[in-house]
Amino acid sequence: MSRNFLMAVPIVVLAVGGSTACATKGFVRTNVGQVNEKVDSLGRSVEETQERTRQNEGKITEVDKAAQAAAQAAKQASNEADQANSAASAAATTANTANAKALEIDKASKRMVFEVVLTEDQGNFKFAETLLPDEAKAKLDQMIGQIKADPKGAFFEIEGHTDNVGGKIVNERLGLERAEAVKRYLYEQHQIPLHKMNVISYGEDKPVAPNGTRDGRAQNRRVVIKVLA
Q1: If DSSP states are collapsed to H, E and C, what string results for the chain?
Q2: pLDDT per position in the chain (229 positions), as tens?
Q3: Does the predicted model carry a pTM greater than 0.70?
């Protein structure tokens, strides 16, 4: 009986061993199958991602091309605008030059019929002021009355002058403002056409009396109106 038991033990061990081996192979096949499915799923996901990337790259390329085309169109439009501005500027310069030449020709064809001088020593412009006093307005009114009695057309050359007190640039501006005050009065009160008046400032450059005295400086602070007909 003891011999039979010993022979039975290996048979049982072999049976158990064989069963374990079969179970292990099945487990491996199951896990391998799951891994393969996951690998296949990941592969498909990668392919889809790559496809979307290619599509996006294509869209980005199209957008870049559109942006480049828009930038080129904007640059061309800017160049055309610059050319138009240059042409307009050139036309304006030509027109101004033509007007200046016409004005010079008009002046050259006329002669001075009389001259009016507005100075501080005669109760007109005060020191460092551009306000047109009543005395100066009266002289201008008298001048216009004489011109209207003449049937010929008239042209007004209005010069601004100062003494030498202050800087040269300041005096040029002061002389111009005084001449402009006269021009404005003639236009507003007597309707003299603007194109019939020319304003220029000589500042301190053309004194009529020495600037070393108070009376001399008062004479130099003046506006000269030359009437051409």
Answers
A1: CHHHHHHHHHHHHHHHHHHHHHHHHHHHHHHHHHHHHHHHHHHHHHHHHHHHHHHHHHHHHHHHHHHHHHHHHHHHHHHHHHHHHHHHHHHHHHHHHHHHHHHHHHHHCCCEEEEEEEEHHHCCCCCCCCCCCHHHHHHHHHHHHHHHCCCCCCEEEEEEECCCCCCHHHHHHHHHHHHHHHHHHHHHHHCCCHHHEEEEEEECCCCCCCCCCHHHHHHHCEEEEEEEC
A2: 544 544 444 544 444 455 555 556 666 667 667 767 776 777 777 778 788 877 877 777 777 788 788 888 878 877 787 787 677 666 656 666 665 565 565 555 568 788 899 887 665 666 666 778 888 888 899 989 888 877 567 899 999 999 999 889 999 999 999 999 999 999 999 999 999 999 999 999 999 999 999 888 888 989 999 999 8
A3: no
